Amino acid sequence: MPRPHRRTVIVMLATFAVGAIAWTLWRGTHPDRATLARRAYDRGEWSQAEDLLRIDLRPDRIWSADRNEVRLYARTLTRLGRDAAAKNLYDGKLASVTMEAEDFFLKGLTLTREGKLEAAFKLWGRSMAPEVVHPEMLDHYARLGARLQQFGPALEASRRLSRMPGWEARGLYILGSISEILDDPPGVVEDLTDALHRDSEARGAPFDPTHYRKLLARNLLRLERGAKAEEVLHAIAKADPEAEWLRSRAYLQQGEMIKATSALTRSGSYGADHRITPEPAAYVGESSCVPCHREVARHYQTTRHARTFARGTGLLDLPRTDQPVPDPDDPKVYHEVVREGDRVEVKTNLGYDVTRMVVEYAFGSPDHYLTMTTRDDRRAYRALRISHYRDPNTSGWTPTAGDVGHSKEPDDRIGQKIDVRDGVMRCLYCHVTRPRDFRDPPPTGGRSASASDRAIGCERCHGPGGNHMHAVERDFQDERGSSDFAISSVPASAGAAANGHCVECHTVGLPHEIARNPEDPRFVRSPGATFGASRCVTESNGEMSCLTCHDPHREANHSPAFYEAKCLGCHASSARPSAPKAVSCPINPSKDCLNCHMPKIARPALHSKLTDHYIRIHRKKTATRRSDGSDSQP
Questions:
Q1: Fewer CB atoms < 10 Å away: N or C end of the chain?
Q2: Sign of torsion, CA 56 61 64 68?
Q3: Please, what's the b/e burial string for 138-155 (b: 16 or more CB within 10 A of its CB; e: otherwise)?
Q4: In a domain? residue 214
């Protein structure tokens, strides 16, 4: 190549290189709209990002646009709450694009805004492999899990969040809140103490710092650490009635009665307004209640509530099989309940093998229905496939309710696996005073005094009694001379509040499903949920509760006349004028209320008839014909 031409080429290449460098430098200081939108999105300035992207992504350009730019636009629209427009992009242009963690998070967020909480929870759960780092999704997943009572996944998510730089405090605040729900005072104290130390303003947490300080103080009081609780409460203004009420308990535990009296006075009506709220105190066990409440305790021990749980030597007096009982699903499999020395065992003959497991607990009433539980060789809890029943005419062994046809795995033949929540078997939640006393492994700090209760003890409804013991001993009063016995008072509470204690355990099934169709015969086992839907309750101005007809300290009265008298107290022609809507029955104004409005419904699986607590006028319905030709009455 001639030298002049070579120079020309060199000059052209140098000019191109200089231009490229200049262009790169200019782009670095003058980025395009897509880059600016990405930066705005990362800063949380979503409106600005949307403005920048909208220019390049007009409807006529969407299908030819860069997919990453369209993805950013879909994310931005979701962040701005424009879910329908974002969905069109995800289902259209982005349908074949691999979803990233941010996309899964935003799709779940859209589902929550549509009220599809379970779907959002499942989507997030499937999207969070251990290697996925998306703290915002962990945050929402943990909160939603707590709301849906999916505490295992919620705990794991909040623990992962608490280990992420910049998100530690938020994860700890959620952990502390879940520990409170799970009745774990040491866990609450550890998590919230650390969270407040890391971020005393609780930035980004579900509640403000005052909420968490009061929650921390409550749990310190439950551990009898009154002095430390007082220290935590110093950060809260004395104008806060709840904080003052908690201060009164902190001083009460320390024996500083002058300060306790002053704080109680400053709390105003907080205690009276929250009579049903459990005291922040230690459990003392029902044996501590008997010396002062002998008559009540004597009557209570005859109730089913006091006999709904058995363990240890108490199992030796329960029914045992007199011959092998066939399995509900496989007649080749047989079960036996036998006594071996000082314990009860379940023998299951599988045909090819015989397993033997020790019975740990029994749930239910020996005079009604009783289910025993064991542990397999992996320490998993299992319910015996057969339960014992007793009715007015017969007794014997029957398939455990809800277990027929559910034997899917070979191990299920030795007993259906029972759900465990944070180490506590599901059945324990409604059969003992404090379920966490039976946690495996044992709770931090050991079991409380209520672990020695026979079954459901006093403190299940009245709350921990530690402060009550201090208050009685020290004659706790406010400055006006009004005594404070520092114990939850269920009878003194309004109807709806009192019912809350009963609803928790006397509901079998999901409350929102029951609310949709309280007339369904399946829900007769859920009087806690159906009773509240009755007009008698909703139109009682808050007066009617479970306690209107039932004394929780005595065995239920079985006389129809007793309950009809309760009905006629409002519905007779002489009913008090304060209840004008409680009109007399036009069919039979003086008797037979129950047969019409609260009939007995047969539950064959339980070998019993249960009272329908959804009080109403039962409309007659025409029988429908099933596909097998049999009649079905609703």
A1: N
A2: positive
A3: bbbbbbbbbeeebbebbb
A4: no
